[in-house]
Amino acid sequence: MDSSTHEDGHDAVRPEIVRDPDPERRHDPQPSVSEPSKLIRIASMTRAMLDEVREAPLDEAGRVRLLSIYEGSLDELKEVLSDDLVEELDAVFVPINENPSEAELRIAQAQLVGWLEGLFHGIQASLISQQMAATAQLDRMRDRKAIEPTASSDGNGVYL
After folding, report:
1. Which end of the chain is more exposed for a tag (fewer CB within 10 A), N or C?
2. What is the C-alpha separation between 143 and 72, in angstroms, rounded?
3. What backbone phi and psi angles, to 5 degrees, belong to 81?
4. Which residues of 91-121 are buried (b: 16+ CB within 10 A; e: fewer)?
5. In angstroms, how far is CA 58 from the centroid of its own chain?
6. What are phi and psi of 11, to 5 degrees?
7. Per-residue b/e over 26-53, b at no fewer than 16 CB within 10 Å?
């Protein structure tokens, strides 16, 4: 940390700017979610629907309704996801025809649930990584502070 002397003779400690030790190493920006609570609601609904569809056979009206909800869920997700995640979603999910079979709908629902679970795991891993990096940075700052000389209370001398 840098220090300068105040009018009263005491050293003032100025915050140190901590720089990335390896500026050449750049991470790609993490995909983001603008409304996490909406994402969680959509994922919970999708999971519940998949569980329900597994339990009972679907008639024509049920398939139409499930397809409508599935497509609406994808549209809602696109509103809260970053551009990178929307691109991934579009690449992974093939549009379903207007008269899908029960099996096709179940597979599409399971795929969506799996993708959302993967997204949640990715978010968790990112948060853990950020927490570990912040902890390491804090430890480095503490180590630097512990080895820096400190001024005596009267301003006359430096003690280790």
Report:
1. C
2. 53
3. -95, 155
4. eebeebeeebeeeebbebbeebbebbeebee
5. 36
6. -80, 135
7. eeeeebebeeeeebeebbeebbebbeeb
How many angstroms separate the CA atoms of 153 and 9, rounded? 10
d(CA 143, CA 137): 10
**Cβ burial, residue 152 (10 Å; 0-12/13-18/19+):** exposed
Q: Which two tokens stand for residue 120?
A: 């949640």
pLDDT in tens, the chain (160 residues): 444 455 555 554 444 444 444 444 444 455 578 888 888 888 888 888 888 878 878 888 888 888 998 899 999 999 999 999 999 989 988 888 888 888 898 888 889 988 988 888 888 888 888 899 999 999 888 888 877 665 555 556 566 6
Say what angle helices 83-92 and 102-147 make with each other, to 10 degrees: 150
Asked whether the beta carbons of 67 and 14 are under 8 A apart, the reply is no
SS3 of 105, please? Answer: helix
What pTM, to 2 d.p., does this model score?
A: 0.61
